[in-house]
Design brief:
It comes from Deefgea salmonis. Keywords: Membrane, Transmembrane, Transmembrane helix. This is Fimbrial assembly protein (PilN). By secondary structure, the protein is of the alpha+beta class. The protein contains five helices and four strands; from the N terminus they run H-H-H-E-E-H-E-E-H. The protein has a four-stranded antiparallel beta sheet with strand order 1-2-4-3. A hairpin with a 4-residue loop joins strand 1 and strand 2. Helix 3 crosses helix 5. The chain is rod-shaped.
């Protein structure tokens, strides 16, 4: 086997290609290792940045939760108002549908869902029909209290119908569960409107 010529100061009889190749490969290997070290450092830095970002988000979330737990009374009041706005008119229309009769026409109807209060002005053929309506309200399981605010005869009308004002408070949790859906509530509203139209009251 021919001996390798690695002394570059001595002019060899021929160029030591094998030795040069090994040196080049060695330099390439060193450069590749240094590159991989730089890549590893960069990946480590990115991981540290991601960890810091995650830790910051967790801290912000914990601060938000703590702030919500320590919410001021004003915030609680706003939340109560928001919940009250989600209340439905369906129980009121359900109660009206239960007690309504064709002899009754509503000329004014106000429903306050937060107070669970119904205020109405109505016309009936006679005062007896008004009193029967009050009795039906009082007999309804969903009714809490009924007040007949005023009643009289409509003098200007030749038929002399009875006019009255009634206020009804309904229960938040009726003793008898109501099976009325939003469709039934809409039907009750349309029936009230039709009765008012039939009586010529606006």
């Amino acid at each position: 086997m021919k001996k390798l010529q690695l002394d570059f100061h001595v002019r060899p009889a021929q160029t030591p290609w094998l030795g040069l190749l090994l040196c080049v490969l060695g330099v390439i290997a060193v450069l590749w290792v240094m590159t991989q070290i730089d890549v590893a450092k960069e990946q480590k830095n990115q991981l540290e940045l991601q960890e810091d970002s995650i830790a910051l988000r967790i801290k912000q979330r914990d601060s938000k939760v703590k702030a919500e737990l320590n919410a001021s009374p004003v915030s609680a009041k706003v939340e109560k108002i928001r919940r009250d706005q989600l209340l439905s008119h369906a129980p009121a229309f359900d109660l009206l549908e239960r007690v309504w009769e064709q002899e009754i026409a509503f000329s004014r109807l106000e429903i306050a869902t937060v107070e669970r209060d119904i205020k109405m002005d109505l016309e009936a053929k006679s005062l007896n029909d008004v009193l029967l309506l009050v009795d039906r309200f009082e007999a309804a399981p969903a009714t809490k209290h009924v007040t007949l605010a005023r009643n009289s005869l409509k003098i200007g009308d030749p038929n002399r119908p009875a006019v009255a004002a009634i206020e009804v408070l309904w229960l938040a949790d009726p003793a008898v569960p109501s099976s009325t859906t939003s469709t039934a509530a809409s039907t009750a509203a349309s029936r009230v409107h039709s009765a008012s139209a039939a009586s010529g009251v606006h």
